Amino acid sequence: MPMHFLWPESLWLMAALPLLVLLYVWLLRRKKKMAVRFASLSIVREAMGPGQSVRRHIPPVLFLLALVAMLLAAARPVAVVTLPSTQQTIILAMDVSGSMRATDVQPNRMVAAQNAAKSFLTELPRHVKVGIVAFAGSAQVAQLPTVNREDLVTAIDRFQMQRATATGNAIVISLATLFPDAGIDLQQLQGGRDRQRGFAIDGEKKELKEFKPVPPGSYTSAAIIMLTDGQRTTGVDPLEAAKLAAERGVRVYTVGIGTVDGETIGFEGWSMRVRLDEETLKAVASKTAAEYFYAGTAADLKKVYETLSSRLTVEKKETEVSALLAMAAAALALLSAGLSLLWFNRIL
């Protein structure tokens, strides 16, 4: 997005700058006429030297640039700049279904995912809270959001694999963790009933503050990262859950691990057919104004988390940059005056 101005009317003052240039040229010519005449012009050229005639124009040019910067600052420019993120909470929703035993990602999908998640924690600023949701046939909060990295690592190491995959439940539980007072009810969604945004189900209906949807991706205080290697086999429709997240402005970044074509995995006498549902994961990310990442190896998975760390710890914002231009104007004015004193023992 290009720079724009909050007070563009101030830019009309720029029209005075050509007048200042003309005034400077007129003063030079007037000074030349009033100068003491030398017997020979060659003596003047020799006394000044080729550099002197150029140097005398540098301080005025710097002062003119300082005026330009001042006038731009007065117009209150706004530009998109990259700043440290104000994001305070990230929920890691991690698949612990039986298919995570597959060894196509070394040493296996689960261990690779655990190691990548731990590495991700070390990359985040210490003030960012992280919560962990583990999901298979159901979804549970393995660790409430905290800044204590040791507790988070312990929760990751405690993962126990289970059957089935409920990706939609993982998103809903993550949202309920981020908004504990919002009345997000997983049982109500699983029952196939329409969401009643003004009520929560907890034995009986409790009236809540009226909920108003916001633009997708507009909630910058939290985000969800969901990693899975399979497709939904039970629970809430992940696209319905993604809609719930989008209405609250929460981005859901999705990470796919494993085979896209599908394969049969055997373990301790049983086998199962698994396939990564990239189409749904991409749709979830798109609906919430986030991104989808595919990780085919442990190295890829680590890179994905590194990318997410950089994306979530900085953000681009429209910010007024008047102060920066004012500082630049002051620096140019001081430099102009300093050079003039140094070279000609005068200010301009």
Account of the protein in words:
It is a single chain. This protein has helices at 16-34, 41-55, 58-74, 109-123, 149-157, 167-178, 186-190, 238-247, 278-287, 298-313, 322-344; strands at residues 4-5, 77-84, 89-95, 129-135, 139-146, 199-202, 204-207, 222-228, 251-257, 263-267, 270-274, 292-295, 314-320. It has eleven helices and 13 strands. The two termini are 38 Å apart. 43% of the residues lie in helices and 22% in strands. It has two domains: 4-81 and 319-344, no CATH class; 87-296, Rossmann fold (3-Layer(aba) Sandwich). With 348 residues, the chain is an alpha/beta fold. Helix 3 (58-74) runs antiparallel to helix 11, helix 4 runs parallel beside helix 10 and helix 6 runs parallel beside helix 8 (238-247).
